[in-house]
Amino acid sequence: MRTPLPARRHTTVFAVLTAAALTLTACGSGDSTTAAGRAAPAGKSGGLPTTDVVSSVKKNDKAARLLPADVRDRGTLRIATSVGGTPPGSAYLPDGKTVVGQDIDFANAVANVLGLRLKRETASFEAILPSLDSGKYDLGTSNFGVTDERRRTIDFVTYINDGQGFAVRADSKLKKVTDFAQLCGLNVATGAGTTFEVTLEDNKHVCADAGKKPYSVKTYTEPGAIWPSLQQGRSDVVMSTINGLRYAVEQQEGLKFLGEFHRLDVGFAFKKGTKLAPAFQAAVNRLIEDGTYDRILKKWGTRASAIDGSRISPPEIKD
Question: How far apart are the first and last CA of the chain?
């Protein structure tokens, strides 16, 4: 059994996770143009790592030459980021303005390799992919899993391997979820518009097939609201990203991670047919070569999600 964390650490980090959700509720979206890799403002980080592992990344001319000419001339890209309440993907520092996370570091590092500046806007998870097709954004980040369904309308450039998993309260009788029939009769919390919601809805039939009471899917637009629902008993189990679950369980008392359920590649998302994909793939591979890639993973404790090389819209991983 995991040794309980000190109460002060639990309270601080839980406050950060909740604050992220409250900030999204209050502000909706923000717009700011920043130099990629700019260090976070001085001050308390709320337990989130703020080590700068990106600003030293230099432009790579070979990768930059793969950019479309109009993008090279413009020098900027519009990026949409969903700022969830659960690191390591992305989260707000306690100032409610500064966004940090693994997705942020990777996007900033790639921008540095390509000699670009990012104009970042925060947006809800479920709004980003449709907005790419409309041309509102050039790309999106939010730990987007590469699925065959999404590949029909979206192009991806992979940068990590994550996937699906489950977490419960420490007093739960669940030990490991290997079949959706184990969830029958339970309340399952997950993020709205995610692959988790789709997967849960698509598999509801297993309970009826087994003659059992169906599980109930509780979706949350604000990711930070998921954990209070579990802690307070409104939900029995959470389905989310493997890395996000591991991070949350380490930072909060009274929870346990039930292990990996299904692995997925994760990538930057683009409009179908984008001409940006080859440059982004080359930039990710450059980060792997120069060691920046490993430094980002080490910072966020996600080395188990490392990939050997970036791919463009690979087929979905099948277990």
Answer: 28
Provide the H-helix boundaries in the chain: 7-27, 61-64, 69-74, 102-114, 125-134, 148-151, 195-202, 205-209, 226-231, 242-251, 277-290, 292-300
Q: Give how far the C-alpha of residue 181 lies from the chain's centroid of Cα atoms, to the nearest Å.
A: 27
pLDDT by residue (tens digit) across 51-89?
999 999 999 999 999 999 999 999 999 999 998 656 899
Cβ(162)–Cβ(243) below 8 Å: yes
Which class for 72: exposed (0-12), middle (13-18), buried (19 or more C-beta within 10 A)?
A: middle
Farthest CA pair distance, the chain: 62
Instruction: For 92-130, write each residue's pLDDT tens digit.
Output: 898 888 999 999 999 999 999 999 999 999 998 889 999
Q: Which two tokens stand for residue 275?
A: 């001409």
Q: Radius of gyration (Cα) for the chain, nearest Å?
A: 19
∠ CA 318-80-15, nearest 5°, is 90
